[in-house]
Amino acid sequence: MTTPALKTVGLTKRFGRHHALSGCTLDIPAGRVVGLVGPNGAGKTTLLQLAAGMLAPTAGTIEVLGGHPASGADQLGKVGFVAQDTPTYANLSIIDHLRFGARTNPHWDQATAEKRIAQLGLDPRQKAGKLSGGQRAQLALTLAIAKRPELLILDEPVASLDPMARREFMKGLMSVTAEDKASVILSSHLVSDLERICDYLVVLVASRVQIAGDVDDLLAGHFRLTGTRRELADLPGGVEVIEEGHTERQSTLIVRADVPLGSFTVTQPTLEDLVLAYMSQAMSSRPAGEPTR
Question: What range(s) does the ABC transporter domain occupy (predicted)?
Fold first, then answer.
């Protein structure tokens, strides 16, 4: 049996009384490109920092590639991490960053690092503080890739980039995933970015996993139903309503079903439809007065 890229059971992280993550159970297969999506405060960064070994759980368990996060040099070498602010050292040149990477990573691939920098058209002598936001993000990605990790974790790396820089970053990431066999977990608010590259989806809302699975399987099991306004009791058994909207005459539903759907007009939802439906369901089912985390 293949070792999962990430496996959690009841994973919980509290900061004082605040639950940043609560009862998170996941089993993400290796070799997948995973899109992790949810609103601000959902717990995405906390989950990724736990996976990278930057935080320790309050309760529950987490395994990354079959080991405990950051449990030793070998385990650290298996994981590449790019934080949301794509941190670099402003006073160090690009070549200094590559030298630092070579000294601190046992599996460092200098040829790959230099090739990426050349392909990006960057001057290795340029200091990181003089680079644009998109160029710093590309440098951070290069440092993570050149570790030759088995798991590459990216925490909203394009959140602050303009559309062109975001596009170039995602193109670079798609090239890496095509060439290497590493697992990737990519957190993003931008479902359009995830649609182009991800084949596995995790929706996290209010510190809890709402849905997780293969993108094709999830889309195949969900439907948008449009028809005359009717009560939900008219739906056949075995249909789970994820989101509903009604006008005076018409109903539009997003449902999960494996049975015939009657007289509704049935179409396939997009990945964004699915994500927004589960986020809406989770937010509307929150008990009155419960704060947004």
Answer: 6-231
H-state helical runs in 59-162: 73-77, 94-104, 110-119, 133-145
Amino acid at 40: N
Q: Are residues 38 and 64 in the same domain?
A: yes
Whether pTM exceeds 0.85: yes
> 120 with 181, same domain?
yes
Q: Could you tell me the CATH number of the domain that includes residue 69?
A: 3.40.50.300
| Number of separate helices (H) and strands (E) present in the chain | 9, 13
| 221-245 pLDDT tens trace | 999 988 887 776 678 888 899 998 8
Instruction: Provide the token pair at 71.
Output: 């449990």
Q: Answer whether residue 20 is part of any domain.
A: yes
Residue 115 and residue 244 in one domain: no
Q: Answer whether residue 293 is part of any domain.
A: no
Rounded-to-integer distance, Cα 214 and Cα 202, Å: 9
Mean pLDDT of 12-21: 91
The C-alpha atoms of residue 87 and residue 107 are separated, in whole angstroms, by 21
**pLDDT (tens digit per residue) in 240-256:** 999 988 888 888 899 99
- Rounded to whole angstroms, the Cα distance separating 293 from 290 reads 9
Specify which residues 254 forms β-bridges with.
Answer: 224, 243
Both tokens of 284, joined, read 């509307």
DSSP conformational letter for 65: T
